[in-house]
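Is this the right way to post structure tokens for a design question? Let me know if I should format differently. Anyway, here goes:
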């Protein structure tokens, strides 16, 4: 009898202890949710996603975690010198990410979930006093700026492996071209002209991919046309995020991730728009003429230096002062620029530390700054177009490498023109 009493007393005691123990645990978590703004601020920069989200098990192949070599990362002092440490939200996020990097926090360990990555408004309002006055699209960008792993809709995992049986199997140049689902005609013009895949100039293998997001649900459904196009040409990559100007940084991040994984041996990578004209033979000769170490450290295009955020809320590149405060590092215009393939893994690591910035080419400039790589100005890249009177001059066009912007029809006409054997310059 006494034994039973002792036993029940013991059970009671243990139960009470467990209840007490769990309730303190509960308090802990509740407490950690109520920390100050500095603590809250740390969170988003840590939520670097590893592209392994569990959203939507699609029949297509999912991206997996990048190779571990990507993870070791040090940031050049140039970035700290270029971007002031002040009270603006993005600046604070950056410095918080850099502090975490120094502490050796595992930036890549966090689980990512595409359906849970958006930040709520109250949290953002505590960090940006005028957040609700931001343009709606900008608010949308800020809420989704930790979302880095959209589901894959179309992939080309064998893009850079094809042609393995031949001797010239190494990709010399990979064109990655920002397009949108409806731009069928523009893509076809690029395929028939400057983006044609194959072996050029006796031995340089060129591959092409188009980067697509998804069209909004209000738009006509193009998915079956796109999957036909993807099967027929084998050059479409598509992710399930809405096409919009402020999602271009996400698109750039996906292109980096894809290239590091599926085309790691490319010597050079082009990033640009589908409405530019590229003089591929001139571009290839330029790249071929480069010597080491430049060939392995290249970030070249039309360089925009000393730019600063535009503060007119009506401008499509508007940046609110409470979001970002400081100049932009020098960057190559996003209409089209060239990167050495050897830089891509480091560039991708940098993009995992540096918070997303709404303007993709400025963001690329920030990531290169973090690597200590300077953009190389090349006057043959004309991302703001050339003088009106020169536009139809084939000899001038033939000397240039890139011209923004040209319609599908203009692209075909120019391509034919500069390849005319009767053209004498
Ligand atoms: C081309 O592919 C073959 C066979 O897969 C391989 O042995 C060779 O190293 C490759 N060449 C280059 C330049 O990558
Ligand atoms: C970016 O894409 C996501 C996912 O589709 C979408 O929710 C968001 O509204 C888009 N952002 C902008 C600024 O359009």
């Amino acid at each position: 009898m006494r034994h039973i009493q002792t036993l029940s007393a013991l059970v009671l005691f243990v139960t009470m202890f467990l209840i007490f123990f769990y309730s303190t645990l509960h308090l802990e978590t509740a407490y950690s949710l109520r920390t100050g703004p500095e603590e809250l601020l740390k969170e988003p920069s840590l939520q670097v996603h590893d592209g392994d989200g569990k959203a939507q098990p699609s029949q297509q192949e999912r991206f997996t975690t990048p190779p571990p070599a990507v993870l070791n990362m040090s940031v050049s002092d140039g970035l700290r010198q270029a971007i002031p440490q002040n009270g603006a939200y993005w600046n604070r996020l950056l410095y918080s990410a850099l502090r975490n990097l120094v502490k050796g926090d595992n930036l890549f360990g966090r689980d990512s979930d595409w359906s849970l990555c958006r930040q709520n408004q109250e949290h953002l309002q505590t960090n940006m006093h005028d957040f609700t006055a931001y343009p709606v699209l900008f608010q949308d960008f800020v809420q989704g700026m930790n979302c880095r792993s959209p589901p894959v809709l179309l992939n080309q995992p064998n893009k850079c492996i094809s042609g393995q049986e031949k001797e010239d199997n190494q990709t010399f140049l990979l064109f990655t071209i920002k397009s949108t689902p409806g731009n069928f005609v523009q893509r076809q013009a690029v395929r028939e002209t400057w983006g044609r895949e194959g072996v050029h100039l006796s031995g340089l293998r060129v591959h092409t991919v188009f980067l697509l997001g998804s069209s909004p649900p209000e738009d006509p459904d193009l998915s079956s046309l796109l999957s036909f196009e993807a099967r027929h040409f084998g050059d479409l990559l598509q992710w399930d995020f809405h096409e919009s100007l402020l999602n271009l940084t996400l698109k750039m991040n996906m292109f980096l991730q894809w290239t590091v994984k599926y085309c790691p041996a490319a010597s050079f990578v082009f990033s640009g728009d589908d409405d530019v004209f590229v003089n591929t033979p001139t571009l290839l000769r330029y790249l071929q003429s480069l010597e080491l170490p430049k060939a392995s450290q290249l970030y070249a295009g039309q360089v925009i230096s000393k730019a600063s955020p535009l503060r007119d809320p009506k401008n499509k590149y508007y940046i609110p002062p409470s979001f970002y405060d400081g100049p932009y590092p020098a960057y190559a215009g996003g209409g089209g620029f060239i990167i050495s393939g050897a830089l891509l893994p480091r560039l991708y690591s940098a993009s995992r530390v540096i918070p997303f910035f709404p303007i993709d080419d400025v963001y690329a400039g920030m990531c290169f700054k973090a690597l200590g790589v300077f953009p190389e100005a090349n006057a043959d890249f004309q991302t703001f177009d050339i003088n009106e009177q020169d536009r139809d001059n084939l000899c001038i066009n033939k000397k240039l490498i890139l011209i923004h912007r040209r319609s599908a029809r203009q692209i075909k006409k120019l391509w034919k023109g500069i390849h005319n054997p009767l053209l004498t310059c």
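Format looks fine. Someone answered above. Worth noting: The longest strand covers residues 204-214. The chain has one domain: 30-425.
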